[in-house]
Design a protein that fits this description.
By secondary structure, the protein is mostly helical.
């Protein structure tokens, strides 16, 4: 696997997908199969020479994996300052805020993302997720999940989680009928245990 990714990078050193794949491999893979965090950092240094914004986001992702959220936020914010319309930077910064339960900040970043690119459906999902986790802005969360689900997704489990989280928000809003429908869809898509448990509790009432 490592050799294939190294060959891909050698053939396409300027291609973001090839860069990110190799950096993430070295970051996540154990040393026994070739993973090397030092190599990842050297790659990021090299990438940063020609693509500084891309390099900042890679540093942010690496810092998150190392649970250095202060550094991660700093790198992501620097990428936004360099290009305020960089939707990837807004998304990454929002995800970092979400991981630290800074819900209002996360939502503001995700909303900035969809204001620039209304078809960034991952940011729509994250707006809904932030609403679900925080227990606030229920209407915004419902609308965001409806937009995400309406677009569809290739990953059935990801889509199932959207249905489940939307159902939870609908229950808060008092719409148990639609909530049941979305829980059933979550189960049909990915046999989601959390959806099964929630549907069982809902049907007892």
């Amino acid at each position: 696997m490592l050799r294939t990714m190294e060959q891909c990078y050698a053939l396409n050193p300027d291609e973001e997908f090839a860069q990110l794949n190799l950096v993430m491999f070295h970051t996540q893979a154990p040393s026994i199969v070739g993973g090397d965090k030092s190599a990842a950092k050297l790659l990021i240094d090299e990438i940063s020479k020609t693509h500084p914004g891309r390099g900042l986001l890679m540093r942010a992702r690496l810092a998150v994996m190392e649970e250095d959220f202060e550094a991660a936020s700093s790198f992501a914010n620097a990428a936004i300052e360099a290009n305020p319309e960089n939707t990837e930077a807004l998304n990454v910064s929002g995800l970092i805020a979400l991981q630290q339960d800074r819900y209002s900040e996360a939502v503001a970043l995700f909303k900035s993302c969809v204001a620039i690119d209304p078809e960034n459906y991952d940011c729509h999902y994250q707006i809904g997720k932030a609403s679900h986790l925080s227990g606030s802005n229920t209407d915004d969360g419902i609308a965001a999940f409806e937009t995400f689900i309406g677009n569809g997704h290739d990953d059935p489990e990801y889509l199932a989680h959207a249905h489940y989280r939307l159902a939870e928000l609908l229950i808060v809003a008092g719409d148990k009928t639609d909530a049941r429908s979305h829980l059933v869809q979550a189960i049909e898509l990915a046999d989601l245990k959390s959806a099964k448990k929630r549907l069982a509790r809902l049907n007892k009432k």
